[in-house]
Amino acid sequence: MIIFFFHLAFLLKTYKNIEPKNKLQSFFDYCIRQIELSIREIGYGDATINKKMKEYVNLLFSIIDKIDNWEFKNNEQKIEIIKNYTDQMVNLEYFLDYYEKYRKFLLKNTFNNLTKDIINI
Fold it and tell me: Staple 19 to which of 15, 33, 73, 121, CB 3.0 to 4.6 Å?
């Protein structure tokens, strides 16, 4: 889930000043709704779902907050951010390199190109 949240956070951060707010809000709502549906399919009750969703949304917003100035942070600061959210103590440089490539990939592609099949659903 953490890896998905990092991806979603980078996507939202990259396109927040490019795309209309309602389009990003629709995408965000769709992602959160899919997480909730997945939790329901596992068999959790309503009270547990509400608690889990609150935890997940808070976690996502925390990640969004931490990566806000990502491009201005040095590698040690970036690794520290990744380390705070993952139990993985090895290969943190791998994750750093991966997220840097993902961020650059997002910059080279349009939001519509990445979400054309999702938003139409």
Answer: 15
Which range, of 15-19, 25-29, 106-110, 113-117, averages the lowest pLDDT? Answer: 113-117
User: What are φ and ψ of residue 75, in 5° steps?
Assistant: -60, -35
Single out the residue of 47, 84, 50 nearest to residue 65, CA to CA.
84
Report the C-alpha gap between 41 and 68 in whole angstroms.
33
Q: What is the 3-state secondary structure (H, E, C) of the chain?
A: CHHHHHHHHHHHHHHCCCCCHHHHHHHHHHHHHHHHHHHHHHCCCHHHHHHHHHHHHHHHHHHHHHCCCHHHCCHHHHHHHHHHHCCCCCCHHHHHHHHHHHHHHHHHCCHHHHHHHHHHC
Entry field: residues in the chain: 121
Q: Which residues lie closer than 8 Å to 33 by C-beta, 6 or more apart?
A: none
